[in-house]
Amino acid sequence: MIQAININSEYNKELMEKSRTLREYMIFVETVRNYEKEYEFKEAVEYAIDDCIRNNILRSFLIKSRAEVLRVFLFEYDQEKHIRQEKDESREEGRKEGIKEGIKLGRKEGLELGEIQMLVKQMQKGRITMEEAAEDAGMTVEKFTDAMEHVMSQLI
After folding, report:
1. pTM for this predicted structure
2. Widest CA span of the chain, in angstroms?
3. CA distance 89 to 114
4. Mind giving me the DSSP string for 22-90?
């Protein structure tokens, strides 16, 4: 089992006090986030690396592995961005499908209501009986009566 631990500045302070490297990594990540408010992600990482080196945060590691840190951060960022885009596209596709299905269902229901309204008017004028109206609608008399009551409630 893998346990994830939140290393943002407000969490797991006891752990941060025990591990200087982990604490400095958390500071580095926060520095990237702060620069990201003003710069594109790649620039934000570059500025954060420079800033942390100047402030002796992960200094030797960042000097030695600068290119790899940049590459890994950009890869992770691109992967997260890709996942977000996929989720957004899927959500939008689902929303469009839902709208399409809703319109289709609404049209069908509207046509059914219109047909029942027409049959009710024919019955009111004495042109057809309840049984004939139900038959024309393809329903039992009981179902037609329920549908008719539904239509009447929609008109009120």
Report:
1. 0.48
2. 96
3. 37
4. HHHHHHHHHHHHHHHTTS-HHHHHHHHHHHHHHTTSSHHHHHHHHHHHHHHHHHHHHHHHHHHHHHHHH
- Concatenated DSSP letters for 107-153? HHHHHHHHHHHHHHHHHHTTSS-HHHHHHHHTS-HHHHHHHHHHHHH
The contacts of residue 49 (CB under 8 Å, 6+ apart) are: 28, 62, 66, 69, 70
Q: Which two tokens stand for residue 73?
A: 């951060």
User: What are the angstrom distances between the C-alpha of 27 and each of 57, 67, 109, 114, 139?
Assistant: 8, 19, 59, 66, 71
Q: What is the pLDDT of residue 9?
A: 67
Task: Let me know the angle formed at the C-alpha of 85 by 81 and 91, rounded to the nearest 5 degrees.
Answer: 145
Distance CA 137, CA 122 (A): 13
Lowest mean pLDDT, pick from 34-43, 99-108, 125-134 = 99-108
Q: Which residues contact 151 (CB under 8 A, 6 or more apart)?
A: 113, 116, 117, 120
